[in-house]
Amino acid sequence: MCVALAVDGTYVGEWIPYPLRMLADLEQAQLEAQSALAASVTTDALDAWKSAWIGGNGRLKSMMMALKDVPKDLKPAAGKRLNELKAALEAAYEERRTAVDASAGPRGPIVDVTEPGVPLAEGCRHVLSRTIDEITEVFGRMGFTLAEGPEVEDEWHNFTALNIPESHPARDAIDNFYMGEQGGVKRLLRTQTSTVQIRAMETQSLPIKVVATGRVYRPDTHDATHYSMFHQIEGLYLDRGVTMSDLKTTLVQFAHAYFGAEAEVRMRPSFFPFTEPSAEVDMKMRIKGEWKWVELGGCGMVDPNVLRAVNIDPEVWTGFAFGLGIERIAMRRYGISDIRWLYENDARFLRQF
Ligand code: FA5
């Protein structure tokens, strides 16, 4: 079971697995079926409706089959409701069929002007889009502007300028989605938003203070915390006299603004070719009432080799950079325990947020 949290972090309920939600889903199914039936004004449309809803392979049949997974104590109520739904849909179908048959012929299909309109299903913003908006809004308040870069990148921006040499294992075909050459340049789907650091330094005048969000791609095996396409937020601040303590302050301010005043930030020594020193970023936040350290990404001081690659003098300018996984942030913020749910497009899951 998965806990859902509101934007302010308060507990608002639980996401209930399908068998336990069956009664609520039956109500929704009845509304959907009736809307679709009301919109079926030809015999062909009615035939299609019949097979989609009450036919041998229709939705009603699959709901009946799902009855076996409903817990014993709920089964009688769910079974009763299913039988009522079946009777209601069959009767509504017969009534509609008679009306449509009667109106077929020279007069064409019936249009019942007294009927209410077909209700439109209301959508909501995807929880990831919402998280991206929330995070960029926090960094916007700290003076960061938005930067962008393409998802199909060249090797210069994804590796070379980031101090990742030809021989580095990170360039291996097994760890990247290479796309073939264009104009003699090897292309690939970017593996990290750090590419946007390079693009910002190539195009913007100094000082630079930007964040960039977007999709990145890695041939990782899908599991509860990994996906082959995910999102990152990259930050870059380049100015005279920027230090590691500016980096930590920025991350702490973000953690407080986004996860609450009690959230903490921990940096553990690590290695990235494009930062020196480098660190892993962990944030301590409350998960299901308990405070836990969660790894969200990496950070460090921009390596002088990176600055030289884009013709910036490392004796004058220093800067920090960080890159955080957005799915991991959203999962912690909203109590989602499996990354794959974010990409299954199951409306019952998505409409909770
Ligand atoms: C990087 O991608 C560095 N570019 C971060 C960085 C930027 C360091 C700037 C220094 C300066 P890493 O590979 O650790 O680092 O990925 C960062 C975060 O992306 C991870 O902590 C995790 O939150 C997320 N992430 C990585 N792989 C996956 C995946 N397969 N699925 C979902 N999230 C992932």
Residue runs with pLDDT of under 50 for 5 or more positions: 1-13
Q: What molecules are bound to this protein?
A: adenosine-5'-[phenylalaninyl-phosphate]
Put simply, the count of helices is: 11
Amount of helix:
25-40%
Largest sheet: 7 strands, mixed
What is the first-to-last residue Cα distance?
15 Å
In CATH, the architecture of the largest domain is 2-Layer Sandwich
CATH names the topology of the largest domain as BirA Bifunctional Protein, domain 2
- Tell me, what is the CATH class of the largest domain? Alpha Beta
Overall structural class, as computed from helix and strand content, comes to alpha+beta
Superfamily at the CATH H level of the largest domain? Bira Bifunctional Protein, Domain 2
Order of neighbouring strands in the sheet with most strands:
3-7-8-12-11-10-9
Strand content: 15-25%
Describe this structure in words.
The chain is an alpha+beta fold and 353 residues long. It folds into two domains: 2-104; 127-350, Bira Bifunctional Protein, Domain 2 (BirA Bifunctional Protein, domain 2, 2-Layer Sandwich). It contains eleven helices and twelve strands. The chain has helices at 22-38, 43-53, 59-66, 75-103, 127-141, 155-158, 195-203, 244-259, 304-309, 326-334, 347-350, and strands at residues 2-5, 11-15, 145-146, 152-154, 178-182, 185-189, 208-217, 229-239, 264-272, 275-287, 290-302, 318-325. The strands form three sheets. Strands 3-7-8-12-11-10-9 form a seven-stranded mixed beta sheet, sandwiched between helices. Strand 5 (178-182) and strand 6 (185-189) form a beta hairpin. It starts with a strand and ends with a helix. 29% of the residues are buried. Bound molecules: adenosine-5'-[phenylalaninyl-phosphate] (FA5). The site of adenosine-5'-[phenylalaninyl-phosphate] has 24 residues, from strand 8, strand 10, strand 11, strand 12 and helix 10.
